[in-house]
Amino acid sequence: MEADTLKVATDSITISFWVDHAIQLLIAIIAAAASIGIVQLNRFYQKKDKKWHDVGKTVVSNTKLKEFCKQIRKYTNADRANIWLFHNGGYYYTGEPQQHLSMKAEANSEGTEDIIGKFQGQPIELYQRNLEKLIDNNYIFEYNELQYKDSLAMINSLYNIASSALFKISNKDGYMVAILAVSWEQNKNIEEKEIEYIKMLIPAITLELMSHKKE
User: Fold this and answer.
1) What are the angstrom distances between the C-alpha of 204 and each of 82, 125, 132, 137, 200?
2) How many CB atoms lie within 10 A of CB 17?
3) pLDDT score at 102
4) Neighbours of 80 (CB within 10 A)
């Protein structure tokens, strides 16, 4: 009888010991997780832009950019006029940043499909051919976009773009930050007066785009 009582007492002590250790271990795990969470949260807020972005300002700006596109499309009798912005898109495993293009505003001829929703976060490699030319030129023109066999030609074929003109938009330091694109569904030679008209509007478009630059 005494042996049974002693065994029960020993078992109770053993169970109590492991329960206490389990509770302590659980508390330690929770504390560690909380610490990690606080560290990650601090890192997030250190990197995060503290300044609130004004949605209304962006909407108004987009409307102004669309108006520029409308003016240019009408003056050049183009089927499409759109503005594209460069932006980052993460990193490759090599550490090289991924560069992307997104359409910011567009204006199209009657019956021509709006495509702004389809052209967000596009890898710049898709547009390599024309981007190479824009590096050393403020503007380029291609009479026959469909003569090529690259990814850009495939995109142009899909949306019936036969001729195109691209105008480089740079920041005050001279870096290309955006592109104004004008395109036609029929082959067309752009006129000098049309080129000059677009170049005249580029500073105002640039100013509108850079109005969102972080301080």
Assistant:
1) 15, 28, 25, 19, 8
2) 10
3) 95
4) 23
Cα dist from 94 to 86, 87, 91, 211, whole Å: 21, 19, 8, 33
pLDDT in tens, 11-47: 554 545 444 555 565 455 454 444 444 444 455 445 5
Tokens for 119, please give them.
Answer: 């052209």
For 168-179, the pLDDT digits (tens) are 999 999 999 999
With tokens 């990690």, the residue in question is: 36
pLDDT tens-digit series, residues 44-97: 445 545 555 667 777 778 889 999 999 999 999 999 999 999 998 888 898 888
Q: Residue for token digits 């007066």? A: 193
Distance CA 61, CA 209 (A): 8
Pairing type for strands 139-142 and 163-170 reads antiparallel
Tell me the residue type at 40.
Q
